[in-house]
Amino acid sequence: KGILRCRYNMMPFSGAGERVRPGGSRRSKEISMVTEKALLPVLDLKEFPNSVVDVFIELSATDAGSRCAGICAAAIALADAGIAMKDMPLAVAVGKVNEKILVDLCYDEESYPGEVTDMPVAVLPRTGEITLLQMDGEITKEQIKAALGMLKEVIPQIHQIQVDALKNKFKAPGEE
Question: Domain residues for 152?
Answer without folding.
Answer: 3-157
